Amino acid sequence: MAQLLSPGAVLPGIGITSFPFFYPFKGLRLRDAWHFHPPERYYKRTAREVGALVLLPRAVIVPRAADDDALALSARFRRGGRFPVLSYHHALSGTVLLRSSQPLTGPQKRRRAEELLRAGLAGARPGARGFIVDTRSAQAAKQARVTDAGTEAKAAYRGWKRRHRPLERGRPPQESFMCLVEACGDLEQSIDHWLSRLEGCHWLPHVKEALSTTCLAAQVVAHREGACILVHGAEGTDSTLLVTSLAQLILDPLSRTMAGIQELVERDWIQVSGHLAPALCTMPTWPSHLFLDCVWQLGRQFPLSLEFGEGLLLALFEHAYPSPFGTFLCNRRGELWGLRTRTHFLWSGLNQPKEQRRLWSPIYTPSPLAIWPSVEPWSLRLWQGDRPPHLLPWEAHYSIYKEKTELLQPSFSLWAPTLNAGSLDSG
Amino acid sequence: MEHIRTPKVENVRLVDRISSRKATLGTLYLTATHVIFVENAPDTRKETWILHSQISTIEKQATAASGCPLLIRCKNFQLLQLIIPQERDCHDVYLSLIRLARPVKYEELYCFSFNPQLDKEEREQGWMLINLREEHKRMGLPNPHWQLSDVNRDYRVCDSYPTELYVPKSATAHIIVGSSKFRSRRRFPALSYYHRDNHASICRSSQPLSGFSARCLEDEQMLQAIRKANPGSDFIYVVDTRPKLNAMANRAAGKGYENEDNYSNIKFQFIGIENIHVMRNSLQKMLEVCELKSPSMSDFLWGLENSGWLRHIKAIMDAGIFIAKAVSEEGVSVLVHCSDGWDRTAQVCSVASLLLDPHYRTLRGFMVLIEKDWISFGHKFNHRYGNLDGDPKEISPVIDQFIECVWQLMEQFPCAFEFNERFLIHIQHHIYSCQFGNFLCNSQKERQELKIQERTYSLWAHLWKNRADYMNPLFRADHSQTRGALRLPTTPCNFMYKFWSGMYNRFEKGLQPRQSVTDYLMAVKEETQQLEEEREALEERLEKIQKVQLHHTKVKSKHSEPSKHSGFSTSDNSTANTPQDYSGNMKSFPSRSPSQGDEDSALILTQDNLKSSDPDLSASSDQESGVEDLSCRSPSGGERAPSEDSGKDRDSDEAVFLTA
After folding, report:
1. Residues A304-342: tens digit of each pLDDT
2. pTM score, two decimals?
3. Number of cross-chain residue pairs from A and B with Cβ atoms under 8 Å apart
4. Where is the composition biased (Polar residues) (chain B) (predicted)?
5. B592 marked among binding-site residues
């Protein structure tokens, strides 16, 4: 793969695998400032090789102006080596959406001019500004300095504006989810206290916040020509992905197609964080659940704009649980597949013709426009299955969840998040 | 009109509820029937029309530097906030509207001046469209067990009942009159629905005047007669839809409920639906939640629960489900009553009928259902919906709750109803609009005295004429789910009851789903039909040509007419919108120039206009594009980057993309 890309775009061996990425927008013309490998060739080639979507190359897109040293430097300055990479390029406005992890400013408020970001901005339209969306509260970002991390110091980032949009991560959303599952599974619950119980779970506020932060970022992408938007939280693996992937769904009509969403999930979730990947059981499930719920909310408000139906979301939902499903499939084939082929399997399984009816939306009408959802409480709903008999995904999946967590063996945690992190963290 | 103190006020601002900074400048007109706000913007001149009868409250707020705010709340859940520059103008408008919104005579109502340009014959035909005699025939009446009684001819027994009533054959006039004397307002047990499959029936009445110990032989005989009219069962259910406590309290006033010991073979059942006052307060609380400005999810859910609205909806549904089950599964007849038997009883009987009989789930059947259980049985439309100035304590959203029950069922059974959500919303609108005569007055008797049918028009004819707008494309009469009685899950499903944003927030288009599956499917259906017709025409032509060739004649076939189908418009698919206020109270990034959004909203605007066939509704509501403007999004405190790009018109973004 490397020889296909211009030198400088790919840094073999240094941590880029922790951020594998490939840009999907077919036929896109990027500015010269960005190193870019035309995806058509890649897709044509890979399609010949495997006949389906495969694991994407270990490549990311970075500004052309940034050389290897700048990348390495930036990687050392970011938690887990997750330096800013391109997540989405909005062709209409020429704006780029970047994502990364938090900078390692530390208690001394270390300053390190990040050539990478500077180059990114320089490659943009002259006079354009950069925006940083930090998914933590200002206070949390400040507190992170204790652990040698932090957030971008104003002085070191000329031309960049920073905003904090706190999204809860980790335990609270995970507990919210469990609470919701339990509440929906409780059939004895009377209607008198149902809504307050729902409120007590605090799940819908997570949905609302995730969507509104996304919309804020997407709005800048859509309306600030030539700007650079960098999204990061702490690790850059959960809330950050939530925001960048949802923003693409809102802005990019191609990501709303069946192939598009699969690419998006593969690229932004499975490859980066391992969420939704069948084999990863050490990971929390909330980011993917939150992502799927938000996608469902988009689909409810724009029923014609998504090529996939609720069935796909439910299927992904099922796969978001750490499950031995992959091995089951492998055994049937009588062949031990590696992790790559196993994730590949998920898609080829879903793309079988017999699944079409379940997964595709029959009323999809392609539209090139952005879909701006309403995030007011009146417009958000608890996700309920629309197929009779009154199937509630949460309820149905409660049993699956219980079953699978019981079945899980530690040996399934193959792909640890330590993957390739070594060489950079020390820096 | 003598009540209009000032017919026109200029430079009035209409405030957008969601983003309060945004306001449109325009002129306010007061007419004899409407309040009209016309925008100044020369290209759109958007008009907002509000019927006086829709106005629920008018509130004059404290004068600010910008002018005098006037808040108009409507019964169809529209909220209008106007800012009038001069205090005196505001006061004049306020006083005029106070008077105009509270007519004292029926003759002042809009339906007496509304003229849809129909001749006398068409008007009469309109009133004939929904015919209860036909409905009874459809149910299989009269039959050996039930007969038409003329006991209430000229409203001699009960003035709030219709003249034509079905009663059990064994119930003589003597029994009926005797029973009526033992019932509140003489509303004796009469047939509401007859289930011809198993002879079980739903009857309705008011509460008995039993007090603590009173008995009435004729009333007991009446209930016996109802039981005997159903040979398949040896008992009947008597359902009191009130909470037990309320019913017991009524005993002290000489009213109350049936004593199981006095009536043979009845099973008595309480179903606690609260009274009209509780319901009125509940709606009020829920509307307060709807009016909250950028509430959090918790505010919303707490507020909704505290209002108790969904709980009340569930109580009504539960009562309907209980009765439907008794009739269809057990084959037992049911007598339903509440206090007077015109509010909760009407709700419960109509929900049960809807669950039992697929006919009521069709467009025409639903009109019949409202005519049967609400209009003919003396639901007090005038008092409940405040058409004329009256006691505010009598006002209560009784039929609104029934309409919402239907919507909740539609959400559960998307293929079971021939009509769509718009149909329900338009009916709700016209219950309050007083544009048609159907819902005037408190009883059939009053309507007859007022000669409603000769002086006003029927809503049913109007809805029927535009029925294409109200069709549910998913309706399937032959589906297993839609045949016979609707079966709801046995386990309690709390999440089944949802907040009906399409009704209570319907004037805030930004909160609604931006794409309508219903409209899309209707367009597809129409397209399919056109293609089908074209295919037939072409086949005919082909046949002709073949014939010509066979006979080797030299007749030249004419060119066929150009194909008519034009591909359904893409406006459905390209429903554009603009981003909304996502920053809440937090700082946001500076936004784009205020000129944005125009093309987008224009798209939606035309689409809405195309959709709505109802001139009044479209004038007053559907033109509202509801697309929020972002221009004022950024709170003043926020750090603003210099707006270096304000010169550019950014909304061509999407348009450029379209053409690219």
Report:
1. 999 998 888 877 777 665 443 333 333 333 333 344 444
2. 0.82
3. 175
4. 566-596
5. no
